[in-house]
Design brief:
With 295 residues, the protein is an alpha/beta fold. The chain has helices at 4-38, 45-53, 78-87, 99-102, 107-122, 127-130, 151-163, 176-185, 227-235, 275-294, and strands at 57-60, 68-71, 139-142, 168-173, 198-203, 219-224, 239-240, 265-270. The mean pLDDT is 92. Bound molecules: iron/sulfur cluster. The site of iron/sulfur cluster (SF4) has 7 residues, from loops.
Length: 295
C-alpha cells in the first residue's frame, strides 16, 4: 500500500515532469524564432509565415476578460522596463504596481508574451500574411499584458485589426508616440479614418491623474488610489470599471461608443494594492494636488 509520502512524491514528480516538458516546448519555440529572426533580410516567405504561427493568441475561458481573445505584448519589452525603472522613483507611476510583472511566476505566459513582442516588434508583416491569423473570439484585447514595444509592433497590430474587421478590438496602450507614428505610417491621420472595429484605450501613466488624450484616443483609462477617489471620478462623469468582468459592464472598452461623442470618454478603476503601497501613493497624490493648487 502506498503511504502518503509516496503519493506526494509522485505528485511532485508529475509536476516536475510537466514543468520540464513545458520548458522544453517553450525553448523550442524561442529557438525557432531566434533562428528565423537571425536571417534578417534573407528570410523567406515560408519563414515569415512560420514566425506568425509562433504568435500566442489566447482565448480566455474565465477571469475578467472571459470570452475575449488577447494578443499580448510583454512586460519585458524596452518600453515597459523603462517605465518600471522610472516607477522606482515615482510612487504615482502605475507601472510600479504592474499586475502582469508581479505574475512573473507564470512562466508559460511570461515567455509566450515575450516571444509575441519579439516577433511583432522585429518584422513588419503584410496584410496578406496577417489575415491568416486565427483569432478565436469576436472580441480581442490588445495588450492584456505588456504594451506596444515600438512602431513596428503598433503597425502590425493596426494591420491585424484591419484584416480582422469582423472582430471588435480593445487596443490598450501607454506608448502613445509609437501608436501615433504607426497610425501616420498606415495612412490614418484623422478621427474619421480610425477603424470602426477598434476602441483606442489610453492608459493613464499616473495614478489618479487622467492622461491628456491623444487625438486618436477613445477612452482614457485611469486607476485611482482609493475607493473614495474612484467614486468621486465616477460622480464627475467617468464610466466605472468594476475590474471584475468585461461582460458584466457590456464590453464598454470594445465598442468605440465614445468616438461618436467626439471626445474621449474617461473610465475609472480603483487600484488593487496593499495598505503600505496605498499610503505611499496617497502621500504622493496629496502632495501633487497641493502643488497643483498653489501653482
Ligand atoms: S470598463 Fe468594462 S470593458 Fe473596460 S476593462 Fe472595465 S470591465 Fe472591461
Amino acid at each position: 500500500m502506498k503511504n502518503s509520502k509516496n503519493v506526494n512524491m509522485s505528485a511532485a514528480d508529475k509536476n516536475a515532469q510537466r514543468l520540464e516538458k513545458m520548458r522544453a516546448t517553450l525553448q523550442r519555440l524561442e529557438d525557432t524564432a531566434a533562428q528565423i529572426l537571425e536571417k534578417g533580410d534573407s528570410m523567406t516567405p515560408a519563414d515569415r509565415m512560420q514566425l506568425l504561427q509562433l504568435l500566442n493568441i489566447a482565448y480566455h475561458k474565465t477571469g475578467k476578460i472571459q470570452d475575449i481573445a488577447s494578443i499580448d505584448g510583454s512586460v519585458t519589452c524596452g518600453f515597459c522596463e523603462k517605465m518600471r525603472a522610472c516607477a522606482a522613483n515615482n510612487p504615482l507611476l502605475i507601472c510600479g504596481y504592474c499586475y502582469a510583472a508581479a505574475d512573473a511566476y507564470k512562466e508559460a505566459s511570461w515567455r509566450r508574451h515575450k516571444l509575441n513582442a519579439r516577433i511583432l516588434s522585429s518584422v513588419l508583416f503584410t496584410e496578406e500574411e496577417l489575415k491568416t491569423l486565427a483569432i478565436p473570439a469576436m472580441r480581442c484585447r490588445i495588450n492584456e499584458d505588456g504594451d506596444i514595444a515600438n512602431v513596428t509592433h503598433a503597425r502590425n497590430v493596426l494591420r491585424i485589426q484591419k484584416t480582422h474587421d469582423y472582430i471588435k478590438f480593445g487596443f490598450w496602450y501607454k506608448n502613445v508616440p509609437a501608436v501615433n507614428e504607426a497610425l501616420r505610417l498606415e495612412g490614418i491621420t484623422c478621427r474619421a479614418d480610425l477603424p470602426q472595429n477598434v476602441t483606442f484605450v489610453q492608459s493613464s501613466v499616473l495614478i489618479g491623474i487622467p492622461a491628456a488624450p491623444a487625438w486618436f484616443t477613445d477612452i482614457v483609462f485611469t486607476v485611482w488610489p482609493t475607493e473614495e477617489l474612484t467614486l468621486q471620478a465616477i460622480a464627475a462623469g467617468s464610466y466605472e470599471c468594476n475590474g471584475r468582468k468585461c461582460m458584466t459592464c457590456g464590453f464598454n472598452c470594445y465598442h468605440a461608443a465614445a468616438r461618436r461623442t467626439g471626445k474621449a470618454q474617461h473610465v475609472a478603476e480603483c487600484l488593487r494594492c496593499n495598505a503600505a503601497q496605498r499610503a505611499r501613493i496617497l502621500e504622493a497624490y496629496n502632495a501633487y494636488i497641493t502643488n497643483k493648487r498653489s501653482a
